[in-house]
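Researcher: I'm comparing several assemblies side by side, and this is the next one on my list. It has 548 residues spread over two chains. Same procedure as the others: predict the full complex and return the structure.
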Amino acid sequence: MSRLYEHRILIARRATQLSILGLFWFGANQHLGVLTGNLSASHLFRTIPLADPFAVLQILATGHLVAGTVLLGAAIVLACYFLAGGRSFCAWVCPVNPLGDLAAWLRRSFRISGQFNVSRHTRYGVLALALVVSAITGVAAFEWLSPIGMIHRELIFGPGLGLLVIAGLVLLDLYVLKHGWCGSLCPLGAFYALVGRRSPLRVGFDAGRCDHCGDCIVVCPEKQVIDFKAMAASASIDSGECTRCNRCLEVCPRDAYQLTLRFGRSAAKHPEEGEHHATQSAA
Amino acid sequence: MSRKMDISRRDFMAGAFRSRNAALAATGAFAWTHVVDSSRGAGDSLRPPGALPEPGFLASCIKCGQCVEACPFDTLKLATAEEQRATGVPYFEPRETPCYMCEDAPCIGACPTDALIEETPIEDARMGLAVLLDQESCLAFQGLRCEVCYRACPLMGKAIRLELRPQERTGKHAYFLPVVDSASCTGCGQCERTCIIEEAAIKVLPLEVAKGRLGEHYRFGWTEDARISRDFEAPRNAPDVPAWGEQGLRKLLDDMDDLSGIEEP
C-alpha cells in the first residue's frame, strides 16, 4: 500500500499516457469519437481541433500556409501546455517518456553508464535545425523522421518497422548517450521547455523542510533543474526544462515539494518578491 | 524579462556561435537535408482525393491520420517506416482497396491542414490516371470480351470508353478495347481493383508519372484554330467511335445487359 502511495503520481502518469494512446487507438480503429487523429493533429469529441504547435511551426517554416483549423488547434494546445507547465507534455502525454524512464531505471538498477554525454542544450540546436531544414527541404523536417511520430502512429494505425525505434531509443539512452533522447536531443521537448518557461504550474519547494538528502536528484530526469540555492530563493523549480513529472514530490521523505500555481514573473530575480510568494504558498 | 534569462540567452548565443558548434550545426543541417531528400519515396504513391500537388501535399500533411479514420472503406493507409514512401503520409493501393469516391468525401473534410482541399463534385478529383499498361496481357487485346474495367468505372463511358476495331484473326469479330480518357479519369482505381487477370493490366499511376507534356511550340496544321494547351485537352466535338457510332455501341451493350429469357439454373 505504501509503495503504491509512493508511486501514486507515477501511476497516474502511466495511466494518463496509456489512456491518451488508448483513446487515439479506439478513435482510429473503433471510431470512438473522443480523440480522433493522433498527437500531430486531432479532434476532441469530433469538434475541438487540436494540433502539435511545433509541427505546425515546421509546416509554416516550409513556406506553406495551413488551414485555420490546424492553426486554431495549435493555439489551443499551446495555451493548454503553457498553463500546464510546458514539458508536462513530456511527462504525461508523450509515448516515448516511458522508454526514457525505463532506460534511466535500468541504468540506475544495473549501474550502467552511458558512453557519451552531450550537452542538454543540444536540443535547442536540434530545434533550430528542424526549422532551418524544414525551410530547405520544403517538408516539416522533424515530423519527417520523428521517432515519437513513428511509434505513436504505428501503435495507432497499424504496426510497421517504425516500432523498432522503441528498442533503438532505449538502447541509445542505455549504452550510448546518457539521458540521450528525452534529456538532450528531442526538439519537441526543447520546444515545450520554451513554452513552459513562464508557466504558472510549477513544482514548489519549501527550503525549510529540505534536509538535502538528494532522493529527488536520483529520480529527476532533468537533474540540472534542481538547484537548491535558486529554489530556496524562489520557492519553486523555475525551469522550463522541468517536466512536471512530480517524481521529486512523491519520493521526498520530508514533503519539501508541492505542486504550486504561480502567476506572474519568476521570483528568482526579485528576492523580496520571492519571499512574498514563499509566505503565500506557506499560508 | 529577467536578468537570469538575459544571461542564459547571452550564454546560449555565445555557445551557438562558437565555431565548433557552427560546424556541427552545418553538418547536421546537411545530413538532415540529405536524409529527408532520400526518403521522399519513389513518387509512385497515390494520394487521397483532393490532395495538393505532391510537393505541397508533403509539406502540409501533418500525418495525423484523420483522413484514414474518416474513410468508410479503409482505403487510406499511413505509410509505415519500412515502406519506400514518405513515412506517415496517407496513400492507397487500388488493387487492394480503391477509392469509392464518396460524394461527401469525408477524408477531405477531415483534413485539418488543407493538404486535401474540397473537390466538388468528387468526379473532379484527380488522384492519378488509369493507364492500360500491358496490352499483351489485357484480355480485350486478345480479342476476348472482357470489359470488366469499363463496367467497374464509376464514369463508365466517359473515363473508360470502349473502342471497337476489326478483329483480323477471325475476320468477322471486333476488339472491344478499353480506352482511358484523361479528361475524365479520377484515378480512383476501381478498374485496377477489378481487372480479372492475375496482375492487373490496367493500373493507376500518379499524374506526374502517367502524363507526358507537349512542348508549347507545337502547332498542328489540322487544329490550327484550336489552342494547344499544356494539359492537352481533347478538342471539343472530336469523333470518338468511328466505326459503329455511339448509338450502335450503346444498343449492343444494352442488349447484353438484357437477361430476359435466360433462366437461372
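Model: For your comparison table: The mean pLDDT of chain B is 85.
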